[in-house]
Amino acid sequence: MSESRVIMTVTDGVADVRFNRPDKLNALDEAQFRAIAATIAEIEARRDIRCVLLSGAGRAFSVGVDLDSLASAPALRDLMPRTCGEANLFQQCAWGWRTLPVPVIAAVHGYAFGAGCQMMLGADIRFCAPDAELSVMEMRWGLVPDVAGIALLRGLVREDRLREIIFSGRRYQGAEAADIGLVTHVAADPYAEAMAMARIIAAFSPHAMRAAKRLLNLPWETSNAAMLLAESREQEVLLASENHAEAVRAARDKRAPTFKD
Protein backbone atom coordinates (compact mmCIF):
# COMPACT_ATOMS: atom_id res chain seq x y z
CA MET A 1 0.00 0.00 0.00
CA SER A 2 1.29 3.45 -0.88
CA GLU A 3 0.81 5.62 2.20
CA SER A 4 1.17 8.74 0.05
CA ARG A 5 -1.99 7.82 -1.87
CA VAL A 6 -4.08 5.85 0.65
CA ILE A 7 -3.82 6.19 4.42
CA MET A 8 -5.20 3.43 6.63
CA THR A 9 -5.28 3.26 10.41
CA VAL A 10 -6.95 0.49 12.40
CA THR A 11 -8.41 1.21 15.84
CA ASP A 12 -10.69 -1.13 17.80
CA GLY A 13 -11.51 -3.13 14.70
CA VAL A 14 -12.34 -0.12 12.47
CA ALA A 15 -10.13 0.45 9.43
CA ASP A 16 -10.18 4.19 8.70
CA VAL A 17 -9.24 4.39 5.01
CA ARG A 18 -8.65 7.79 3.44
CA PHE A 19 -7.91 8.57 -0.20
CA ASN A 20 -4.97 10.94 0.01
CA ARG A 21 -4.45 13.02 -3.10
CA PRO A 22 -6.09 16.23 -1.86
CA ASP A 23 -4.25 18.54 -4.25
CA LYS A 24 -6.06 16.77 -7.12
CA LEU A 25 -9.37 16.36 -5.24
CA ASN A 26 -8.46 12.66 -4.98
CA ALA A 27 -8.54 12.20 -8.75
CA LEU A 28 -7.63 8.65 -9.74
CA ASP A 29 -4.49 7.97 -11.73
CA GLU A 30 -3.00 4.49 -12.16
CA ALA A 31 -0.91 4.81 -8.99
CA GLN A 32 -4.05 5.68 -7.02
CA PHE A 33 -5.99 2.73 -8.45
CA ARG A 34 -3.16 0.37 -7.56
CA ALA A 35 -2.90 1.77 -4.02
CA ILE A 36 -6.65 1.32 -3.48
CA ALA A 37 -6.62 -2.24 -4.82
CA ALA A 38 -3.65 -3.06 -2.57
CA THR A 39 -5.51 -1.64 0.44
CA ILE A 40 -8.54 -3.81 -0.33
CA ALA A 41 -6.29 -6.88 -0.57
CA GLU A 42 -4.66 -6.05 2.77
CA ILE A 43 -8.02 -5.64 4.51
CA GLU A 44 -9.28 -8.92 3.06
CA ALA A 45 -6.25 -10.74 4.46
CA ARG A 46 -6.57 -9.35 7.99
CA ARG A 47 -8.74 -10.81 10.75
CA ASP A 48 -8.48 -7.85 13.12
CA ILE A 49 -10.60 -5.57 10.90
CA ARG A 50 -14.34 -5.70 11.57
CA CYS A 51 -15.55 -2.65 9.64
CA VAL A 52 -14.14 -0.19 7.09
CA LEU A 53 -14.76 3.56 6.81
CA LEU A 54 -13.94 5.22 3.46
CA SER A 55 -13.39 8.95 3.06
CA GLY A 56 -11.35 11.43 1.06
CA ALA A 57 -8.74 13.89 2.30
CA GLY A 58 -9.22 17.56 1.52
CA ARG A 59 -12.24 19.03 -0.23
CA ALA A 60 -13.68 15.95 -1.95
CA PHE A 61 -14.29 12.24 -1.69
CA SER A 62 -13.00 11.78 -5.25
CA VAL A 63 -13.65 13.61 -8.52
CA GLY A 64 -13.03 10.42 -10.47
CA VAL A 65 -10.49 9.49 -13.09
CA ASP A 66 -7.55 11.79 -13.80
CA LEU A 67 -8.05 11.68 -17.57
CA ASP A 68 -4.74 13.31 -18.43
CA SER A 69 -2.59 10.92 -16.42
CA LEU A 70 -4.54 7.80 -17.41
CA ALA A 71 -4.47 8.53 -21.14
CA SER A 72 -1.17 6.69 -21.51
CA ALA A 73 -1.58 4.20 -18.66
CA PRO A 74 -0.55 0.66 -19.66
CA ALA A 75 -3.43 -0.89 -17.70
CA LEU A 76 -5.97 0.92 -19.94
CA ARG A 77 -4.69 -0.72 -23.12
CA ASP A 78 -6.50 -3.98 -22.35
CA LEU A 79 -9.40 -3.96 -19.90
CA MET A 80 -10.44 -7.55 -20.50
CA PRO A 81 -8.01 -9.51 -18.25
CA ARG A 82 -9.66 -10.33 -14.92
CA THR A 83 -6.65 -9.46 -12.75
CA CYS A 84 -8.66 -9.24 -9.49
CA GLY A 85 -11.00 -12.23 -9.39
CA GLU A 86 -14.09 -11.27 -11.40
CA ALA A 87 -12.83 -7.71 -11.95
CA ASN A 88 -10.04 -5.81 -13.67
CA LEU A 89 -7.84 -3.41 -11.67
CA PHE A 90 -10.16 -0.42 -12.07
CA GLN A 91 -13.37 -2.32 -11.28
CA GLN A 92 -11.76 -3.82 -8.19
CA CYS A 93 -11.45 -0.37 -6.64
CA ALA A 94 -15.26 -0.24 -6.38
CA TRP A 95 -16.35 -3.89 -6.55
CA GLY A 96 -13.69 -4.89 -4.02
CA TRP A 97 -15.35 -2.89 -1.24
CA ARG A 98 -18.65 -4.71 -1.85
CA THR A 99 -17.00 -8.15 -1.83
CA LEU A 100 -14.87 -7.59 1.28
CA PRO A 101 -15.96 -9.96 4.07
CA VAL A 102 -16.68 -7.05 6.46
CA PRO A 103 -19.09 -4.09 6.23
CA VAL A 104 -17.85 -0.95 4.47
CA ILE A 105 -19.18 2.56 5.16
CA ALA A 106 -18.49 5.60 2.96
CA ALA A 107 -18.42 9.20 4.23
CA VAL A 108 -18.80 11.56 1.29
CA HIS A 109 -18.22 15.31 1.18
CA GLY A 110 -17.51 17.69 -1.67
CA TYR A 111 -17.62 15.67 -4.86
CA ALA A 112 -18.00 12.02 -5.83
CA PHE A 113 -17.86 11.97 -9.61
CA GLY A 114 -17.46 9.17 -12.14
CA ALA A 115 -15.15 6.47 -10.80
CA GLY A 116 -15.19 8.24 -7.42
CA CYS A 117 -18.97 7.87 -7.25
CA GLN A 118 -18.70 4.23 -8.28
CA MET A 119 -16.18 3.57 -5.49
CA MET A 120 -18.68 5.07 -3.05
CA LEU A 121 -21.36 2.72 -4.41
CA GLY A 122 -19.20 -0.24 -3.39
CA ALA A 123 -19.82 0.64 0.27
CA ASP A 124 -22.60 -1.17 2.12
CA ILE A 125 -23.76 2.05 3.83
CA ARG A 126 -23.18 5.56 2.48
CA PHE A 127 -23.35 8.89 4.35
CA CYS A 128 -23.05 12.18 2.49
CA ALA A 129 -23.09 15.88 3.32
CA PRO A 130 -26.18 17.88 2.30
CA ASP A 131 -24.18 19.88 -0.26
CA ALA A 132 -22.14 16.95 -1.60
CA GLU A 133 -22.46 16.46 -5.36
CA LEU A 134 -22.60 12.97 -6.85
CA SER A 135 -22.62 11.95 -10.49
CA VAL A 136 -21.97 8.95 -12.69
CA MET A 137 -20.87 11.22 -15.52
CA GLU A 138 -18.99 8.96 -17.93
CA MET A 139 -21.50 9.75 -20.67
CA ARG A 140 -20.09 13.30 -20.77
CA TRP A 141 -16.79 11.86 -21.99
CA GLY A 142 -18.33 9.49 -24.53
CA LEU A 143 -17.88 6.50 -22.22
CA VAL A 144 -19.94 4.12 -20.09
CA PRO A 145 -19.48 3.64 -16.33
CA ASP A 146 -17.12 0.67 -16.13
CA VAL A 147 -15.75 0.83 -12.58
CA ALA A 148 -18.42 -1.69 -11.51
CA GLY A 149 -20.99 1.12 -11.44
CA ILE A 150 -23.79 -0.65 -13.27
CA ALA A 151 -23.28 -3.90 -11.34
CA LEU A 152 -23.46 -1.97 -8.05
CA LEU A 153 -26.33 0.36 -8.97
CA ARG A 154 -28.61 -2.47 -10.10
CA GLY A 155 -29.35 -3.43 -6.52
CA LEU A 156 -29.58 0.11 -5.16
CA VAL A 157 -31.93 2.12 -7.34
CA ARG A 158 -35.10 1.55 -9.36
CA GLU A 159 -34.35 0.55 -12.96
CA ASP A 160 -35.71 3.71 -14.57
CA ARG A 161 -33.67 5.81 -12.10
CA LEU A 162 -30.61 3.74 -12.96
CA ARG A 163 -31.06 4.53 -16.63
CA GLU A 164 -31.61 8.22 -15.91
CA ILE A 165 -28.47 8.40 -13.73
CA ILE A 166 -26.33 6.87 -16.48
CA PHE A 167 -27.97 8.39 -19.58
CA SER A 168 -28.12 11.95 -18.23
CA GLY A 169 -24.80 12.19 -16.38
CA ARG A 170 -26.49 14.72 -14.10
CA ARG A 171 -25.34 15.76 -10.62
CA TYR A 172 -27.33 14.88 -7.50
CA GLN A 173 -27.02 16.55 -4.11
CA GLY A 174 -27.57 15.06 -0.67
CA ALA A 175 -31.35 14.90 -0.17
CA GLU A 176 -32.15 13.83 -3.72
CA ALA A 177 -29.29 11.32 -3.72
CA ALA A 178 -30.77 9.74 -0.59
CA ASP A 179 -34.28 9.80 -2.05
CA ILE A 180 -33.28 7.76 -5.10
CA GLY A 181 -30.95 5.39 -3.26
CA LEU A 182 -27.49 6.64 -4.21
CA VAL A 183 -26.75 7.26 -0.52
CA THR A 184 -28.20 5.89 2.71
CA HIS A 185 -28.11 8.95 4.97
CA VAL A 186 -27.53 12.70 4.68
CA ALA A 187 -25.54 14.15 7.58
CA ALA A 188 -24.02 17.53 8.38
CA ASP A 189 -20.84 15.68 9.41
CA PRO A 190 -20.83 12.47 7.35
CA TYR A 191 -17.45 11.33 8.66
CA ALA A 192 -18.53 11.57 12.32
CA GLU A 193 -21.81 9.79 11.63
CA ALA A 194 -20.07 7.09 9.60
CA MET A 195 -17.48 6.54 12.33
CA ALA A 196 -20.23 6.23 14.94
CA MET A 197 -21.91 3.56 12.81
CA ALA A 198 -18.59 1.78 12.22
CA ARG A 199 -17.93 1.57 15.96
CA ILE A 200 -21.39 0.08 16.55
CA ILE A 201 -20.77 -2.55 13.86
CA ALA A 202 -17.26 -3.35 15.14
CA ALA A 203 -18.65 -4.04 18.62
CA PHE A 204 -20.76 -6.99 17.40
CA SER A 205 -19.54 -10.54 16.82
CA PRO A 206 -17.24 -10.43 13.80
CA HIS A 207 -18.25 -13.96 12.82
CA ALA A 208 -21.94 -13.03 12.77
CA MET A 209 -21.18 -9.86 10.81
CA ARG A 210 -19.15 -11.74 8.19
CA ALA A 211 -21.90 -14.35 7.91
CA ALA A 212 -24.50 -11.61 7.39
CA LYS A 213 -22.44 -10.02 4.64
CA ARG A 214 -21.98 -13.36 2.90
CA LEU A 215 -25.75 -13.81 2.88
CA LEU A 216 -26.41 -10.27 1.69
CA ASN A 217 -23.86 -10.66 -1.09
CA LEU A 218 -25.57 -13.71 -2.58
CA PRO A 219 -26.72 -12.92 -6.13
CA TRP A 220 -30.18 -11.42 -6.59
CA GLU A 221 -31.15 -14.41 -8.72
CA THR A 222 -30.57 -16.81 -5.80
CA SER A 223 -33.77 -18.80 -5.33
CA ASN A 224 -35.78 -18.56 -2.14
CA ALA A 225 -34.99 -22.18 -1.36
CA ALA A 226 -31.25 -21.62 -1.78
CA MET A 227 -31.37 -18.46 0.33
CA LEU A 228 -33.24 -20.21 3.14
CA LEU A 229 -30.73 -23.04 3.09
CA ALA A 230 -27.81 -20.58 3.16
CA GLU A 231 -29.34 -18.84 6.21
CA SER A 232 -29.60 -22.19 8.00
CA ARG A 233 -26.01 -23.13 7.20
CA GLU A 234 -24.66 -19.86 8.54
CA GLN A 235 -26.85 -19.98 11.65
CA GLU A 236 -25.91 -23.56 12.47
CA VAL A 237 -22.23 -22.58 12.61
CA LEU A 238 -22.92 -19.42 14.61
CA LEU A 239 -25.07 -21.23 17.20
CA ALA A 240 -22.10 -23.47 18.00
CA SER A 241 -19.58 -20.62 18.13
CA GLU A 242 -17.76 -19.21 21.14
CA ASN A 243 -18.79 -15.69 20.14
CA HIS A 244 -22.48 -16.61 20.37
CA ALA A 245 -21.88 -18.14 23.80
CA GLU A 246 -20.06 -14.96 24.85
CA ALA A 247 -22.96 -12.81 23.66
CA VAL A 248 -25.37 -14.85 25.78
CA ARG A 249 -23.07 -14.71 28.83
CA ALA A 250 -22.59 -10.96 28.47
CA ALA A 251 -26.33 -10.35 28.25
CA ARG A 252 -26.89 -12.49 31.34
CA ASP A 253 -24.10 -10.71 33.25
CA LYS A 254 -25.21 -7.26 32.04
CA ARG A 255 -21.79 -6.39 30.61
CA ALA A 256 -20.29 -5.63 27.21
CA PRO A 257 -19.26 -8.80 25.35
CA THR A 258 -15.64 -9.51 24.43
CA PHE A 259 -15.59 -11.18 21.03
CA LYS A 260 -12.75 -13.06 19.35
CA ASP A 261 -11.69 -12.31 15.79
UniProtKB/TrEMBL annotation:
<comment type="similarity">
    <text>Belongs to the enoyl-CoA hydratase/isomerase family.</text>
</comment>
<comment type="pathway">
    <text>Lipid metabolism; fatty acid beta-oxidation.</text>
</comment>
<dbReference type="GO" id="GO:0016853">
    <property type="term" value="F:isomerase activity"/>
</dbReference>
<dbReference type="InterPro" id="IPR018376">
    <property type="entry name" value="Enoyl-CoA_hyd/isom_CS"/>
</dbReference>
<dbReference type="InterPro" id="IPR001753">
    <property type="entry name" value="Enoyl-CoA_hydra/iso"/>
</dbReference>
<protein>
    <submittedName>
        <fullName>Crotonase/enoyl-CoA hydratase family protein</fullName>
    </submittedName>
</protein>
<dbReference type="Pfam" id="PF00378">
    <property type="entry name" value="ECH_1"/>
</dbReference>
<keyword id="KW-0413">Isomerase</keyword>
<keyword id="KW-0443">Lipid metabolism</keyword>
<dbReference type="InterPro" id="IPR045002">
    <property type="entry name" value="Ech1-like"/>
</dbReference>
<dbReference type="InterPro" id="IPR014748">
    <property type="entry name" value="Enoyl-CoA_hydra_C"/>
</dbReference>
<dbReference type="GO" id="GO:0006635">
    <property type="term" value="P:fatty acid beta-oxidation"/>
</dbReference>
<keyword id="KW-0276">Fatty acid metabolism</keyword>
<dbReference type="InterPro" id="IPR029045">
    <property type="entry name" value="ClpP/crotonase-like_dom_sf"/>
</dbReference>
